[in-house]
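Consortium newsletter contribution from the modelling node. Members have asked for a concrete example of what our holo predictions look like. Here is one, prepared for the magnesium ion complex that several groups have been discussing at recent meetings.
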Amino acid sequence: MPTKLHPALIGFTVLVFIFLVGPLIIVVGAAVSDTSYLTFPPHGLSLRWFENIFAIDAFRRTILTSLQVAVLATFVALLIGIPASYALNRYRIQLPGWLSTLFVLPVLVPELVLGFSLLKNVAYQFNAPIFLSLVVGHTILILPYVIRVISASLASFDFSVEEAAISLGSPPLKTFFTILLPNVRSGVIAAFILAFITSINDVSISIFLTGPGLSTLPIQLLAHMEQFFDPTVASVSVLLMVLTVAVMAIVERTLGLTFLAK
Amino acid sequence: MTKPLSIRNITAHYGRTLVLEDLSLEVAEGELVSLLGASGCGKTTTLRLVAGFLQPTSGAITLGGRDLTRLPAHQRDIGLVFQNYALFPHLSVADNVGFGLKQRNVTGDARTKRVNAMLERVGLDHLADRLPAALSGGQKQRVALARALVIEPPLLMFDEPLSNLDAKLRVDMRVEIRQLQRANGTTSVYVTHDQEEAFSISDRVAIMHAGRIMQLDTPENLYQRPANAFVARFVGFENLIPMKVVARDGALVTAEAAGGVRLSFGLEQFGEIPDDFVLACRADGLTVTDNLAVEGIPATLGLRTYLGRAYQYQCDTAAGALVANGPLSRVLQPGSAAKLVPVPEQCTILKPE
Ligand SMILES: Nc1ncnc2c1ncn2[C@@H]1O[C@H](COP(=O)(O)OP(=O)(O)O)[C@@H](O)[C@H]1O
Ligand SMILES: [Mg+2]
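And here is the predicted structure:
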């Protein structure tokens, strides 16, 4: 006999669901509204606010910048994060315990503080170009996630497999690419996606580092909102959402979302 | 093809901790030598040094005259079989076995042929396309064995290859390993903590303790003539009785144990007898009798257990607590007085520590 759910539990679950999904429905609704102001439920149905995103030059440029920064920062973070996670896991016994904590410490620092300190110490100090500052800032932001996710998949890797390959004549570096990487592939993909999403949605670090002439999509969205209260805000949000959901769907397809719970 | 291995005066550390101390070991061409010892005594460390995954603090390792000591691991050409199999999870059985050949630039048909022949030899030709995750423990270890053998290495090393298998399979697999090793005549070092396993398949066994080899000898000699008290205890000599020679009369030596117990020993049976020595005997080598007139160690019998072939008694004597066996034909009661008579053929004499 299947256990009967308590009505209160069902009610609570529905409430949580509405709480989670409600805002999304409102944003999507507002985005397709055929009005010149933000409203929900939508009056009429129109895709013109989506067209408007691409009609506004600043949005076109910032979408491109956001994508470039996200891709670059993700690649740099993987380039640093994969060897770092490897070293942290491979030599776990020999290394002091606090070292792996050190690598994920930036997660604990409020992003605003991180952004401000980057502005003061990197952007001003070295007079670094905005784009470079953004890539560096995002790399620092996402590196802990990359290391965490890849370490999780390395934790179940048996390093004697690597030694087996070396003993059979495969040099260590070649072994890293032919034996180790294929076995943590899903972890690398998950890290890639998580890093990409974190970067493309970031506001708190970017807001310090963007400047005249160069901005990212979420920052441009904020700027736009200060002047206009039209449904473009909602349609850009939907665009970001769709991008995020698409990327998450790929994660779900490759290894499930369980890694996020770890 | 196969080559002798020589480990000379190796000392090894993990950080500051000394793990191996001045260890030397010669393995002749085609010989199988086991390293036998409790967990943590340095067996794996020894293999890792030879394989090149660890650098010795001092000492040298040579294989067939070639100095391996500073050679990178991937150039050493040694077949390794690991306890946890260490198969490549993302490669099929055939690709696992072919991996070493690929590194040696054996390609195409030549590789396929050698892989298939090897898989056939270990009885896995029907599983060539499987992934390791879909194999049983015994099958995995056969793949690991095939992978190490197919490159025809001059030296094979096994690190507790059977300890993850169940008892019955362990016995079958060790015979199989020995047959393959014999057929190829490959010099081998085999690590185990299982005495029966080591004794059954080895030409010689090195009994290790705390980073040193306590004795290296044939299984027969180790079992019957241990060289020291540690090895004697390790191979099951329950009774080690310190004795002092009190009289020498031609071929007859009289010695005294604690509590004034006197026993006589024939030189023709024991060879040389030093003034201070330890008499070592298993329970089987110490016979319980209620005939108190014979020469032996006076004892009060304690707990009696049934062994099938004999009764075993825990005995209280002036020379300490001893374990001795008595015949099935005569059941003796706990608390009764008896004599424990050493059986010369089953006793051995050790130098004191
Ligand atoms: N990576 C390591 N770091 C520090 N100590 C180690 C390491 N590996 C092994 N040891 C220590 O070295 C000693 C010998 O280990 P090992 O050779 O693995 O023993 P065995 O294989 O005989 O069980 C043990 O005391 C063990 O704790
Ligand atoms: Mg070991």
